[in-house]
Please model this.
Amino acid sequence: MIKTLGFQSPRKTDIPDKPAPGQKPIVDIEDVWVCYDGKWVLKSIYLKCFEGEILGIVGPNGGGKSTLLKVILGLIEPLKGKVLLFGQKPDKKSRLNVGYLPQLSKAEQSFPVTALDVVLMGLCQQMKLFSRFGKKQKALALQKLDRVGMADHAAKPFGTLSGGQQQRVHIARALASEPSLLVLDEPSTGIDSVGQEDFYILLANLRDSQNISAIMVSHDIGMITSHTNRVACLNRHIHYHDDTDPSFESDDHHKIFGKDLKVMVHDPRCVSCMMRHKDDD
Amino acid sequence: MMTEWIELSFMQNALAAGAMLSIALAVVSCFVVLRKFSFVGVGISHSAFGGVALGALIGMPPTLSAIIFAVVVANAIGFVGNQKRLSADTAIGIFFSLAMALGVIFIGLSTNYNVDLFGYLFGNILAITHQDIIGIAILGSFVITSIWLLFKELLFVAFDNEVAHVSGLPVVFLDHFFLTILALTVVISMKIVGIVLVSALLVIPGAAAAQVTDRYSSMFAVSIGVALFSTTGGLWISYYADLASGATIVTLASIIFFIFFGIGRFLK
Model:
């Protein structure tokens, strides 16, 4: 079942992501503001992700989704606000607990590595400097590939795999560091619908069997709503720039999100936005 | 017979130096191709010219001043490229022309005509001394050994810079390290290939190998083969056809690239 986060009635003032008893947020973002070259990319963002959940963040391209992920990972320092990753400021150490999957890039398609090589890269961090991959690492990498159902493709060149298979290999690489959180940027880009289905089932599988949480961003609302525990919306354009523009409710909204918007029953304003309006008042 | 060239001592020097730097160039070129650093290679190699000219002006060994210049410019390119305020492309364009401009100014100021600037620009195998060979051997083995030691990290960063960073690898250090290695490789190749043409050998062996391989291990092996074949073959042709060595080596390497490009299209 889908519970929507951040699409509650704007009159409701409490932040609606109530934790279940004893459940701690692994990601906790409060009132985060990010500015790029004098433009606000993120304005007053509130977000929580709890252990064992798959949190989807939807929004249009350029809406600040990738930036938000980088804030969570501590790669971008917000101008203002609090970011906690596993209860502490995100840094090199807390990041070790996170498996990051960027968008599939075209550059990787011709890179001369096998699926197994890619997974081995995930083991680099745990190994000593100057050391080389041995039998132990290869067995471990193969085990991770097996975990995502890609063991048969271990020796294949990475570029010859399908988009869905490449994403699985990326997951296997992320799993190599035994993360408790996966952060995924547009995971469905370049994957056909069957591959997407399998991919999301794999994520749910990892959550259920190993309690690995996931935060993923996508512009693909349909896909993300049917495969996540909760959904948050992020659109700095609508929420953050056009306060005075009354037309956004109709025109811009459909232009940006597309007609698919109707699949979700919600108010287009998200929690962080509500909080901001409250602050402004 | 076509073997007399081997007996000439300057040719022996050139061959020894060429073989050593082929391996360094080949290994580095694979990373240059994988990281799409071709233009970085052009920028760094041309900046070495400023260093050579400075050496001529202040009476410093040109190789030493070239190392300093190239390493500084390489790291400056890396630094600016990491700031994200300027694109690396712009940074290269600026530093590269600045170093060349300084080079021209230094030459103008210089009264020392003993330094063969033309030889540094286009390569002069007659100028290779025993000292040069020792220098190439030391720097070349440093380049190869350090890449060998940091291979898995460099490969990860080349494959996926962002994920490597998130997973805790010292990406910025590795970038600067690789750029420094690139600069050293340029400097040791100056005398044989020349500053103007060395950037070709920082790309072609790796690029040719990439056409016909889909594993990094075979890519590096083929790249070394291409570089060795083009330098020795190029030196041989240049001797008998009385052509400039650097230009002959680069032309031969390019021909090999086009052949591999055709084979690669056929294979894939």
In short: Chain B is about 85% helix and 0% strand. The two ends of chain B are 41 Å apart (CA to CA). The mean pLDDT of chain B is 90. Chain B touches chain A through 27 residues (CB under 8 Å).
